[in-house]
Amino acid sequence: MENYIIEMINITKEFPGIVANDNITLRLKKGEIHALLGENGAGKSTLMSVLFGLYQPEKGEIRKNGQVVQINDPNDANALGIGMVHQHFQLVEIFTVLENIILGVEPNKAGFLKKNEAREKVMALSEKYGLRVDPDALIEDITVGMQQRVEILKMLYRENEILIFDEPTAVLTPQEIKELLEIMRGFAKEGKSILFITHKLNEIMAVADRCTVLRKGKCIGTVDVKDTTKEELSRMMVGRDISFKVEKKESKPGDVVLSVRNLSVPSKIQKKDAVKNISFDVRAGEILCLAGIDGNGQTEFVNALTGLEKASSGSIILKGKDITKASVRERSILGMSHIPEDRHKHGLVLDYKLEENLVLQRYWQPKFHKNGFIKFKAVREYAEGLIEKYDIRSGQGPETITRSMSGGNQQKAIVAREIDKDHDLLVAVQPTRGLDVGAIEYVHKQLVASRDAGKAVFLVSLELDEVMNVSDRILVIYEGEIVGELDPKTTNVQELGLYMSGAKRDVIKEIEDAG
Fold it and tell me: Which fold is adopted by the domain 4-238?
C-alpha cells in the first residue's frame, strides 16, 4: 500500500447554484510534484482552498500521513506544514515586501519585533532560490511578477513541507518560469511535496510526476505524466481536441489608429523615467505586440496609454486626436478598449454582480439607461448574451457576485466586455493570464477576429508562444526603451530572447561605437 502524505477523500464543496467539488479524491505522495489540471471553474482552486482551511467541505475527509485531520483555517494548515501560494495574491499593498512575508509569524523577543533577524532569513531564502526582491519596496509599487515572488517567499519563510502553488507561473516571464520549475524540482528533492495548479500543459510535462484532471467539479482521473501526452491531457480537461496553433490569414494593415511619439513615463519607484522616448504606430487590421521581460516599463507604458498614469513628455494620438491628457472615459468613448494586466485592481468591481461588471464601460449609453435610470432588463439581456457567447461560468448567471467566480472566468468577463464594446483600438495586456487551453484558443481567435474586422490590436504579453503565434509585428522593450522590431515570420524564440534580455542592444551599441 502506498504511503501518502496528504489524502483528500470524497471531498464535496457546494456554493449557491453550483457544486464546485463533486466527490473528489486526491492523493499526494511525499516528495512528488502532483499537477492539478482543469478548465477555468473546474474546481481546482476550491479544492486547494479546502486543503488550506479557507473553505469547509460539506462531505469528505482529509488525512495527513494516514491520520484524519481537521483544518478549520489557514493557521491549522500552517501548523500541519501546509503552505499556499494563491492565484490572487494575499498581500497588504501599503506594507513592504518584508512586512508581508513575516505577517502573522513575526519574530519577537519580550514583545519587541526582531526585524533584522527576519530580514536576514528572507534575504538568505531569496538568494538561495533566486527570488530576488527588495525587502523595503511597498507592494503597491512593485510588478505582479515581483508580488508572485513575495507570495512564494511567504511560504518558504514558514518552512512548510506541503506546498500548494495555485497558478504560480501565470504572471512570470519565460525565464522566471524556467527558474521556478527548477526551484520546484529542488523542493521535491529536499522531500517537500508539491500540489501544482496550472493550465500550462508544457509545465506539467516538464516538471510533474502525476496529474489529476478535473472537469466541471468532477475528477476525470489521475495519470502518470511520463505515460501521457499534452493532447491526451487537454482532451481529458475539456472533453474535445484543442488546436495549439493560431489560425490566421495574412494581415492587411490600413490607416494608423494609434500613434505614440517620444513618450516618456516616470517611474514610481526610482527617480528616473520607466519609459524613455518611445515612438511607434499601430494600424487598423494588425496585431502589434510589445514583448519584454516583466518590469522593463510595460506596465508604466500601458498605464500612460490608457489614462491610468500621466506621461512626463511626448504624445499619444488616437484616430487623429491627441489623448495624452484625456481621461479614461474619454479614451473609452473615442474607441479604446483595455484588457488590463491586473484584473482585480483595474478590471472589475469584485463586489458588483457579473451583469454590472459587463456594462461598466457602457451603462451610460441610451441602450442601458433612460432619464438617469438604469434599464435593468436591457442590462440582464445583454449580460446573458455575453455569458453564453464567451462561456463565462458563474453559479448564479448574471446575478453572481464577481468575487465568487474563478480567476479564469473573471478574466473571460473582462475579455467579453472589452472586445464586444465598439472599439477601434484594443489594448490587450496579458489577455490569457490564468486561462485554460480551451479559453486561450478562444481568446486568440477573438483577437484575430478583431484584427480581421479592421480594428487595431496592441498586445502586451510575456508568453513567448503567444507573442510568436498571435502577433503580426513585434516590438521589444528593454529598460524602458524599444530595442528592436521583429517579424514573427522571420525571427525565432532565441533571437527574441536575446532582444528581451538586452544582449542584442549591447551588441548593436558596440558595433555603433566601433564604427
Answer: Rossmann fold (3.40.50)
Q: Tell me: the pLDDT tens digits for 199-256?
A: 788 899 999 999 999 988 899 999 999 999 988 888 888 777 766 677 888 889 999 9
Distance CA 394, CA 223 (A): 29
Say how far apart CA 287 and CA 425 lie, in whole Å. 10
pTM > 0.85: yes or no: no
**456 vs 438: CA distance, rounded Å:** 24
Is the Cβ–Cβ distance between 483 and 277 less than 8 Å?
no
Domain 4-238 and domain 256-346+423-514, same fold? Reply is yes
Residue 255, classed as helix, strand or coil, is coil
CATH topology of domain 256-346+423-514: Rossmann fold (3.40.50)
Helices and strands in the chain: count of H runs, count of E runs:
17, 24
The ranges assigned to domains in the chain are 4-238, 256-346+423-514
Rounded Cα distance between 54 and 78, Å, is 12
Residue 489 half-sphere exposure toward CB, CA atoms < 13 A: 6
**Cell of residue 462, nine digits:** 510575456
Say which residue the cell 489577455 belongs to.
431
